[in-house]
Design a protein that fits this description.
globular, four-stranded antiparallel beta sheet, eight-stranded mixed beta sheet, 324 residues, 25% strand, 30% helix
């Protein structure tokens, strides 16, 4: 694993304006992402976790340049792509690909699977004709599908097989980074494990990096090298997987890990639970100071007026809390 970051995000902000009134003027904004900074090294998996609605998927879309950031900086393989328009961004598209949560909805039902996987190869001028078909056949083998299945259509595959098709398509252009947004949440548990193991094997073969977005902590614990914990548009804690799981620093991270199910009933009974009070604040009108202050068991007066910055707290961990 190289120390050089293949993806850097600095101070990323994405606000969605809300219009109202007769003239449809902006009357507010949904603060989906509010000053997020992280980096991913080559061959590394960063797991992005948090409650539903915290802004995880929005970060993925902004990093992919599917939606434009309100502010901040995105550096891909050493090049600043923040302000690039769609036409100028095209040359960088093969460096960053995505795996969708529902692969079926992202595939053309009228095209054979081999054509779907081979489309990026033609679009980027990598291979055509017989050379493209040979590369597609190799990709099918690498993701555990028979090359004969290239003639099948998407509806003829199972859910796990369709996700393998999506992985093959993402890998076809040999990208630097793959954004995987809940890639296994729609799959059965047994199939989920197979797909996760496949992603790990392909990471070692291709040296690709993953931004792995998920609300399932057990999946993230298995696949991630580092973990970023998100709450209401902010990163609250970032660090190595083992450090985060063994010694979570932020009170929200502790509550999140305490809520995750444990298979061993003795361990489940023995662990200390942190039960959060109150409702998740709205990103349309977040509380002043720390956005977690209305639910945090450690909150003090300072938390209600001053927003904490993400800072180093030891062992390679960063946390956004005044009292960590």
């Amino acid at each position: 694993m190289s120390d050089a970051p293949v993806l850097q995000v600095e101070g990323l902000v994405k606000h969605f304006p809300i219009q109202g009134g007769l003239l449809q003027r902006q009357v507010g904004a949904v603060r989906a992402v509010d000053g997020v900074t992280f980096s991913i090294r080559r061959g590394e998996t960063l797991g992005l976790v948090g409650e539903s609605g915290c802004g995880k998927s929005t970060i993925g879309k902004v990093v992919l340049k599917l939606i434009e950031p309100t502010a901040g900086k995105i550096v891909l393989a050493g090049e600043d792509v923040t302000a690039l328009k769609p036409g100028a961004m095209w040359t960088h598209r093969r460096r960053i690909q995505t795996i969708f949560q529902d692969p079926y909805s992202s595939m053309n039902p009228r095209l054979p699977s081999g054509t779907i996987v081979g489309e990026p190869l033609e679009n980027f001028g990598i291979a055509r004709g017989a050379a493209r078909d040979e590369q597609v056949a190799q990709l099918f083998r690498r993701v555990g599908l028979r090359p004969e299945a290239m003639r099948k259509y998407a509806h003829e595959f199972s859910g796990g097989q369709r996700q393998r098709l999506g992985i093959a398509k993402a890998l076809s252009v040999n990208p630097d980074v793959i954004v995987a947004d809940e890639p296994v949440s729609a799959l059965d548990v047994s199939v989920r494990a197979q797909v996760i193991n496949l992603l790990e094997d392909l990471k070692s073969q291709f040296g690709v990096s993953y931004l792995f977005i998920s609300h399932d902590l057990s999946v993230v614990e298995h696949i991630a090298d580092r973990v970023a914990v998100m709450y209401l548009g902010m990163l609250f804690e970032v660090g190595g997987r083992d450090q985060i799981w063994r010694e979570p620093r932020h009170p929200y991270t502790r509550a999140l890990l305490a809520a995750a199910p444990i298979a061993n009933p003795k361990l489940a009974r023995a662990r200390q639970r942190t039960v959060l009070q109150g409702e998740l604040p709205s990103p349309l009108n977040p509380p002043p100071g720390c956005p977690f202050n209305s639910r945090c068991p450690m909150a003090q007066d300072r938390c209600r007026v001053e927003k904490p910055a993400l800072r180093a707290v030891g062992n390679g961990v960063q946390a956004a809390c005044h009292f960590v």
